[in-house]
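Continuing from the previous page...

OK, I double-checked the sequence for Testis-specific serine/threonine-protein kinase 2 against my notes and this is the correct one:
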Amino acid sequence: MTNSVVKEFATSDDEVYLKKLGYSIGTTIGEGSYAKVKSAYSEKLQKRVAMKIINRRSAPKDFKEKFLPRELKCMKAVNHVHCIKLFEIIEFEQKVYIVMEHAGHGDLLEYIKLRGAIPEDRSRVMFRQITDAVSYLHGINIAHRDLKCENLLLDYQNNIKVTDFGFSRFYEEPAISKTFCGSAAYAAPEILQGIPYYIPLHDIWAMGVILYIMVCASMPYDDSNVKKMIRDQLEKKVTFSKSKPVSKEAKDLIGHILEVNVKKRYTIPNILVHPWMTLDSPVGEDGGGNNA
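Thanks. Re-ran it with the corrected sequence; updated structure tokens here:
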């Protein structure tokens, strides 16, 4: 990975300086309360990039002092074909510009909304890529902690690119936390209940929710009432609609990942050797496959 360059400027005319650095700013492709992501063109790289712009003025103290430094530290460390690549970090005035790889086919949620449930052969290819990325992150002691369909981007060949490391952190064993972060719909019951949890398991449960959404085009639990959702998680196994056929192997894998008992919940090695994951799957007509 190219070494990330940190440059500091003091100016109010952001775009003029970005232009001097070789960046032409384009349209907004994502927006939050104190950050937005814009499309840009890099003359140096001779290609389109994504630029995440964080305004320190409007960001809360906790974010500026804890989450932002963690995000930047994690992004600098990550170098994997199925994770969004960091090119450069530019800091000036009260803004931070994170220049990243641009994934041109939107996110996985948009893909599913447009096409419906993803056929299992195609889901398998994508889920292997997700598992490969998470396995890599955990291998370098990074937990993402906000895995969801919106944070899984697709490149022009519809390969998965994990993005948004805003809640990510390095962890050391014993990796226990009780911090809730991310989306409730993708959170394990122990996290929602405020029970101290093993940090990497935050990502594992979310992977189960993602796989369910991929093959069913719906959520495994109704998150409109979190207290009820926790009861549903604790009291029953995940259910599947009879109108959308899902193979018994896929149901079995999802059931083992969305396992309430953390001692029985599948780990990455368990997922990788599950029969559904090891089936030979031809690459779908829309391209893709693991380029690692």
